[in-house]
Amino acid sequence: MSLMSGIPATMGPVLFKAACPECRGRFELSAGALRLAIGASRRTTFYSFTCPECEKAVRRPAGERIVELLTGGGVRTLRLHSTV
Fold this sequence. Notes:
By secondary structure, the protein is mainly beta. It has one helix at residues 64-72; strands at residues 2-3, 15-19, 26-30, 35-38, 46-50, 57-61, 76-79. The chain is 11% helix and 36% strand.
């Protein structure tokens, strides 16, 4: 997952490069096509999308840099809270 460089945010929508592990398709997704879940640990922080080619649900871990890119690009974010 990477933010396309060289495109100022004021000039158009932000697009993210992504790939599907199922069909191996490579494509660009808008912020609206992605979801980010931020949990209490690395294991519970991930982004997800539906592959536009094979329509499979894809869930990938999101490290700090990915979280920064996705939130900065306007991806909807869900903060997961644990119940104690």
